[in-house]
């Protein structure tokens, strides 16, 4: 009986050794050779030692899909803010509260505090920003860098003829080649009451920054302009999605 137990344990040990030396299902030897490394990157993927510090450049183009109607051009966007970062970082999450830095963008298109915060974060690799307002039907292109382990992209821009609406993208994976296209929804930052009153809105329709009524609600999809204040939904309203974002690797 004892001999039988030893034999069984030996068979089990050999089976374990064999299993540990097998390649993962669906991965060829060539793939393992191309992606093998001494240690995994922050995403848990294995990266060749000579690629760990290699930088890649991406071209990000945003197109404003809101209708070109009315004085103040319906819903212009504030300059696009981009960041590349690790999978652990999030610029915003629907259902969470907006950070103070995000609230300043969503309420008054003030991006300086967010840029400073991003530049100080060890989870962020690069920060880039467009240089102008994006009118309905218009486009803006910005370049940003990434590298293995910092391969996620987030973006944010304010719909400026609103109290605290913004369009954004949180932690999407950058394409390894070619292009990727995303359609962005408008979100309510939950940091300012949606009065729709000209006295509380910073955009060209109204010209009153830093005058909103603070609130403390969670980020959620925006319900659009409802006509409860001074803004006419036929002029300043929109349909989802509000923007098209195209990501292209250029280097």
From TrEMBL:
It comes from the Bacteria. Residues 1-19 form the signal peptide. Keywords: Signal. Residues 76-193 form the Spondin domain. Gene3D superfamilies: F-spondin domain (2.60.40.2130). Residues 29-48 are annotated as: Disordered. Pfam families: Spond_N (PF06468). This is Spondin_N.
């Amino acid at each position: 009986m004892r001999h039988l137990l030893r034999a069984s344990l030996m068979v089990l040990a050999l089976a374990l050794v064999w299993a540990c030396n097998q390649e993962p299902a669906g991965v060829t030897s060539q793939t393992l050779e191309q992606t093998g490394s001494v240690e995994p990157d922050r995403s848990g993927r294995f990266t060749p030692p000579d690629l760990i510090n290699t930088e890649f450049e991406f071209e990000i183009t945003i197109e404003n899909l809101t209708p070109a109607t009315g004085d103040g051009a319906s819903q212009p966007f504030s300059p696009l803010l981009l960041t590349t970062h690790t999978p652990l970082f999030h610029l915003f999450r629907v259902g969470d509260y907006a950070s103070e830095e995000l609230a300043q963008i969503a309420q008054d298109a003030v991006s300086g505090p967010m840029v400073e915060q991003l530049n100080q974060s060890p989870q962020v690799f690069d920060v880039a920003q467009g240089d102008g307002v994006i009118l309905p039907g218009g486009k803006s292109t910005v370049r940003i860098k990434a590298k293995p382990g910092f391969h996620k992209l987030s973006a944010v821009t304010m719909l400026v003829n609103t109290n605290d609406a913004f369009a954004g993208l949180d932690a999407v994976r950058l394409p390894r080649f070619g292009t990727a296209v995303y359609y962005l929804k408008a979100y309510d930052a939950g940091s300012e009451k949606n009065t729709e009153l000209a006295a509380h809105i910073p955009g060209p329709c109204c010209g009153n920054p830093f005058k909103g009524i603070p609130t403390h609600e969670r980020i959620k999809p925006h319900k659009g302009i409802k006509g409860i204040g001074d803004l006419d939904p036929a002029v300043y309203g929109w349909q989802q999605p509000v923007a098209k974002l195209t990501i292209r690797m250029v280097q």
